[in-house]
Amino acid sequence: MASAKTREIWLMRTELNQPFTETVPAEFTWHTFNPNKDEAEFLAANADAFADHPEQGLWDETDLLNRLAEPWFVPADFFLLRDKAGGIAGFVWVKIHIERMVPDAEIYLIGLVHKYQSKGMGKALLAHGLNHIYQQGFNEAIIYVDAPNTTALSLYQKHGFRHISTQIVPIEKKRD
Residue 109 falls within a domain, yes or no? Predict the structure, then answer.
């Protein structure tokens, strides 16, 4: 059980046997992340989407740039969902682990800004990321999720994700 200074993280895995069919409404469009252009807007959307999260919503430019500098980062694996005004409504970031003995793929980050939460669009974000993984030739995907996040857990379980293991990790950043 996690304490006030730790988080309980579940590793979950699902099989990918065929593409998912969930789509976003026509007024939304998919774009890949554009380095040196989308950073500030993404950070604002991330802060909004994770306003109540003890760490994720606190990412700053350094946190993002450190991840963009990782050898696993590929812009074509980082998707922004834009609304009809062009603003970021949500995002899904896929991480392909080619450095591992047996390569695998992960839904690294997924979020919706508050304005679009609880409207069923999380299914489309997840499906988009899983379809990308499937198109890369993987027959399974992993995701890490905070155990208390019952909304996310329910969504992932509906897409076949099953609990594999639990980690208790320290909270690195804290809200004041």
Answer: yes
- In this structure, are strands 6-15 and 140-146 parallel, antiparallel, or unpaired? antiparallel
Q: Please indicate, yes or no, if residue 74 is contained in any of the structural domains.
A: yes
- DSSP-based three-state secondary structure for 94: strand
pLDDT digits (tens, 9 = 90+) for 101-137: 667 899 999 999 999 998 889 999 999 999 999 999 9
Q: What is the CATH number of the domain that holds 74?
A: 3.40.630.30
Model confidence at 99, pLDDT cuts 50, 70, 90, reads confident
Q: Tens digits of per-residue pLDDT, 125-171? A: 999 999 999 999 999 999 999 998 999 999 999 999 999 999 998 87
CA-to-CA distance for 127 and 24, rounded, in angstroms?
Answer: 10
Q: Does residue 173 sit within a domain?
A: no
Residue 90 is given by DSSP the state: E
Q: How far apart are CA 68 and CA 74, in angstroms?
A: 8
Number of domains in the chain: 1
- The domain in which residue 68 lies consists of 21-138
Do 34 and 155 contact (CB within 8 A), yes or no? no
What pLDDT was estimated at residue 175?
47
First to last CA, the chain: 23
